[in-house]
Design brief:
Blueprint: E1 2-4, H1 7-19, E2 24-29, H2 35-47, E3 50-55, H3 75-85, E4 89-91, H4 95-98, H5 116-120, H6 124-139, E5 143-147, H7 151-163, E6 169-173, H8 193-198, H9 200-214, H10 220-231, E7 237-246, E8 258-268, E9 271-281
Parallel strand pairs: 1-4, 2-3, 2-5, 3-4, 5-6
Antiparallel strand pairs: 7-8, 8-9
The chain binds pantoate.
The site of pantoate (PAF) has 10 residues, from strand 2 and helix 6.
């Protein structure tokens, strides 16, 4: 397993692999890898001859008052995690390598980014799509792997890949959870012991919403109410949003039918956590 810092080095590896007729998978990450990321790497290793993992805390997807500086970074830890999961190459550029000089070109999406996290993080998805588009151009993978935990990100990337004809297959991967249900996230490291306990309210509340749907509830507002009511039982939780949207366009629905995303964002102390589930109601 190798670590490279420059775009040219990644390209040299990929050109050699291509010459040898090998397929390439890409797992874009911001590092501080956990089992969720490792599940994406393992999937890529299963489906491709070579797997590139990018480790890059992308400055342009953070707003001015967000956690860019505090975001956890540990390349040695990431190297072990990638090695363990079977990845071949880490691309770990400095911001200056990715954004040279006067950078003025962006991938900007509409519709899928209007609600949920897009409504409260105005520059976020433009930054995500731009860096992911750049990574696609740098690595030119056959397939790229994204977790369903960031469901709006997944829907948005799928959309721009389709709209802009990027020749890459987007492979969605399920949420990986701790034994007690908390969705794995690099941001979980911000939680103290009390907050970690309180954070369980996210998955517990979603479970209640999901079981209502499984029992036949189709009214989106009633599912939102069930989830909100449960979240409100936790004094340390501050709701950012609870939304029910169609997974394709990320637009609100009144009735639950087809592929529907139920998504929440909740502050536990100063840490903003997201979680969701997707149902496909025929
Ligand atoms: O999901 C993430 O970690 C990031 O948004 C991504 C896709 C690596 C882009 O920086």
């Amino acid at each position: 397993m190798k670590v490279v810092k420059t775009i040219q080095e990644v390209r040299d590896y990929v050109v050699a692999w291509r010459k040898a007729g090998l397929s390439v998978g890409l797992v874009p990450t911001m590092g501080y890898l956990h089992e969720g990321h490792q599940s994406l790497i393992r999937k890529s290793v299963e489906q491709n001859d070579r797997t590139v993992v990018s480790v890059f805390v992308n400055p342009i997807q953070f707003g001015p008052n967000e956690d860019l500086e505090a975001y956890p970074r540990d390349l040695n830890r990431d190297m072990k995690a990638v090695e363990e999961a079977g990845g071949d190459l880490i691309f770990n550029p400095e911001p200056e390598e990715m954004y040279r000089g006067h950078f003025t070109s962006f991938i900007d999406t509409t519709e899928t980014t209007e609600l949920l996290c897009g409504a409260v993080r105005p520059v976020h998805f433009r930054g995500v799509c731009t860096v992911v588009g750049k990574l696609f151009n740098i690595v030119q993978p056959d397939r790229a792997y994204f977790g369903q935990k960031d469901a709006q990100q997944l829907a948005t990337i799928r959309r721009f890949v389709r709209d802009l004809n990027f020749p890459v297959e987007i492979v969605p991967c399920p949420i990986v959870r701790e034994a007690d249900g908390l969705a794995k996230s690099s941001r979980n490291t911000y939680l103290n012991v009390e907050e970690r306990k309180a954070a369980l309210i996210l998955s517990q509340s979603l479970k209640k919403g999901k079981s209502a749907i499984e029992q036949g509830e189709r009214d989106a507002q009633r599912v939102i109410d069930i989830i909100r009511k449960n979240l409100e039982t936790e004094p340390m939780a501050r709701i950012d949003y609870v939304e029910v949207v169609d997974f394709e366009n990320i637009q609100r629905v009144a009735e639950i039918k087809g592929e529907t995303l139920v998504a929440i964002a909740v502050y536990i102390g100063k840490t903003r956590l997201i979680d969701n589930f997707i149902v496909d109601v025929k």
